[in-house]
Amino acid sequence: MHKGGMMAAAMVLAPLMSVSPAARAELAVAANDGKQLLAGETAHLVPDSIAVLDLAAKPVRVLGRVNAPASMIGSPNAVVVAKDQSFAIVTAAQKYNPADPLNPVSDDKVSVIDLADPAHPKLLQTVKAGPNAAGISLNRAGTLALVAARDEGAIYAFTVKGKTLTPAGKGMLDKDSAPADVVFAPDGRHAYAVTWNAGKLFELAVDGSRLTRTDRELATGRSAYGAVVTPDGRWLINTNVGGTGADRTGSVTVTDLRTMKLASVTRAGRTPEHVLLSPDGRHVAVVLANGAATSKTDPAWNKVIGLFKVYALENGRLREVARADTCHWAQGAAWNASGTLLLQQCAAERELIGFRFDGKTLVRDKAITLPFAARPGAVAAAHSR
Description:
Number of helices: 2
Distance between the termini: 48 Å
Structural class: mainly beta
Order of helices and strands: HHEEEEEEEEEEEEEEEEEEEEEEEEEEEE
Strand content: over 45%
Low-confidence stretches: 1-19
Strand order of the largest sheet: 3-2-1-28
Largest sheet: 4 strands, antiparallel
């Protein structure tokens, strides 16, 4: 190439070379629990780990991994990714119990993972929230993180500067309410906690880093577990794991945040583990554990399987548009940015699988099957919250 051509090429390439690997990839971050054992599985004890995935790759692939505290028992919303994909925050609701390896105990860890080089993620910081640190959310500005402390009935606040968390107090709910998850309103001026024991939705006013419980609350259903808020701030959708009737059917409720009243209640199925909104806000995916066995030694292993259901959100109501069988001990899930792909974590199989969604059908993409040494428990992308 002649000198002028080389200079022109350099001018074109320079902006591309300045773009970080994180900015070029569509990242998801998965938390994997290495201490969650079943009887006879002590040989499977491995470190907890965080995996960074590229959702834009065909097929989806693991870019990098780093050991850090994580837990699959607890909220599937235990991971949040910054909007610019520069870092992630992961909570750990449990830690290894050497006195009783089959029964981990509550933990309070909140860790920051650097994603500047997705192929080599780094554990930057680990701080403490309250015991049984569960669901986590980050405001759109990326300046405040909230963590639900299930064993304390509190929501912990952390200011975020750069990639550093600083404890900034907490907001109290009812002492024994057991908040499993917390999610911001889009404007960042309010947050909403869903509570396992109380089965209620609580509103918190957010002023800087100060959290104040308002007088607005609502009973949603038994064992409220996870929540999402639509991009326009109108609707909050949450799962209620505690089933009713002989089939123990759990529900998904939609709350109108303008009136703090239920807009709809949908009987979803057994154990709705995770609820997640498509990036455009039009579809709601629900992960159903469905009573599927946790071990291949269980006689029911080949009889019951987990379920994915996708609903259209229509003026506060849910209409089922697609469903698919998934795996055993189904946990967290994540959409890609275009809403055409769903990832599903399978704790029993110790793998992550993928499904293609075209607006009408949900079909397994067998090219997406990623094995993990630890049990996958929570996953998120930058658009997940």
